[in-house]
Amino acid sequence: MAQTLDRIRVGSAPDSWGVWFPDDPHQIPWHRFLDEVSEAGYDWIELGPYGYLPTDPARLADELARRHLNVSAGTVFTALHRGPAVWEETWAHVGRVAELTRAMGARHLVVIPSFWRDDKTAEILEPPELTPEQWTHLTRGMERLGHLVRETYGLDIVVHPHADTHLDTEAHVTRFLDATDSRLVSLCLDTGHYAYCGGDSVKLIETYGERVGYLHLKQVDPDILAEVVAQGLPFGPAVRRGVMCEPPAGVPDLAPVLRAAQGLGVDLFAIVEQDMYPCEPDRPLPIAVRTRRFLRSCGA
To answer: What InterPro entries is this protein classified in (predicted)?
Structure first.
């Protein structure tokens, strides 16, 4: 019998339904996502891209309540490595998302660094490595963001290492954690993105467990990943090729990750995200049902 993972609160996200953008003809309508995520057996969701779900708090709260759903987090994208010049624009974006996140009763804001190459076009936007000055902008900027988001909205930021961003590999993630204040900045460990970039999620939890404040659960198909690496494919085309796969078919094995997270002795959200943009509208629900069943078999 699987260990009972009573500190892990499982949910899913619009991402698992192929939603990457606030409005896109390839995506299912928001009300279908809410219907299906509830039908699949999840109690918790993330807001996804700001503007995909209704942004009026009263309307969204009503839609969620009718489906017995709760919100675990909102998500923002930032480019704080670019320094003070982007702060005002960043804070305006963060404020909109944080306001809605707080209104939904959530306590976390997932912060994703900006991409150095375009998700859709594969255009190289910036060098993949930051300069020392940019690293300082990134780390000090995230600390400032963590402080102000907590002071203003009562939320904790959890920074999300992500493929094709400057925060991706084990070396980059550990450098970031070592350079930031643990009281202000925690990590959203995405098991799929970390594996995609060569990292070991269990090792990270065992080494930096006090910094892990949130989990995204996903897996990578190792054969497709090998092709992606060999061909130097950007993340968007890699997803279209199926690099992020349905558990338990890929890596990392999620059961040891969940056990390691349970061992931290704190309550953690573990939100399923299987990147599938774009995808056929009838594909996500059966996958979501099977994934929820699989996670229950792991004790979550």
So the answer is: IolE/XylAMocC-like (IPR050312), Xyl_isomerase-like_sf (IPR036237), Xyl_isomerase-like_TIM-brl (IPR013022)
